[in-house]
């Protein structure tokens, strides 16, 4: 008998409604909402691709946090405040959250079908 493979997906959504729809689609028992918290100014200083600068100059319309809205989660499973936590601590908290929710069994890769 084959065991069911575990799969995961990471999505970025600035909209509460989109996140609620994702939770409903996959089921609340299989959904973790993580808020990676950082002020837009901090994100701009960390931006290696210059996207925030392009958004502020108008080259990137509808850029979340600059010219498009961001709706912070009201009840996330975890908040990772990148302005307060060093990367190792943030990583540890995220890992602990996922293990707590899903167990410590590693997900297996699902091979893509040949094209």
Integer average pLDDT: 85
Number of strands: 2
Look up the CATH topology. Answer: Rossmann fold
Low-confidence stretches: none
How is the largest sheet built, in terms of strand order? 1-2
Portion in beta strands? 5-15%
The CATH first-level class comes to Alpha Beta
Major β-sheet, in short? 2 strands, parallel
Query: Helix segment count?
Result: 4
Query: Cα-atom Rg, whole angstroms?
Result: 17 Å
CATH superfamily: P-loop containing nucleotide triphosphate hydrolases
Structural overview:
It is a single chain. The chain is globular, with a radius of gyration of 17 Å. It has one domain: 3-Layer(aba) Sandwich (Rossmann fold), CATH 3.40.50. The chain has helices spanning 16-26, 40-46, 51-56, 87-102, and strands at residues 34-37, 78-81. Helices cover 35% and strands 7% of the residues. With 115 residues, it is mainly α.
Brief rundown of the structure:
The protein is mainly alpha-helical and 115 residues long. 35% of the residues lie in helices and 7% in strands. It has a two-stranded parallel sheet.
Based on the model shown, name its key terms.
mainly alpha; single chain; 115 residues; Rossmann fold; two-stranded parallel sheet
Secondary structure blueprint with pairings:
Layout: H1 16-26, E1 34-37, H2 40-46, H3 51-56, E2 78-81, H4 87-102
Parallel strand pairs: 1-2
């Amino acid at each position: 008998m084959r065991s069911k493979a575990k799969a995961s997906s990471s999505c970025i959504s600035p909209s509460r409604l989109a996140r609620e729809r994702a939770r409903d689609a996959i089921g609340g028992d299989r959904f973790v909402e993580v808020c990676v918290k950082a002020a837009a100014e901090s994100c701009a200083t960390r931006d290696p691709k210059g996207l925030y600068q392009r958004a502020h100059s108008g080259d990137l319309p509808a850029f979340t946090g600059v010219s498009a809205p961001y709706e912070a989660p009201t009840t996330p499973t975890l908040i990772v405040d990148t302005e307060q936590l060093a990367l190792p601590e943030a990583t540890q908290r995220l890992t602990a959250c996922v293990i707590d929710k899903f167990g410590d069994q590693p997900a297996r890769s699902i091979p893509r079908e040949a094209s």
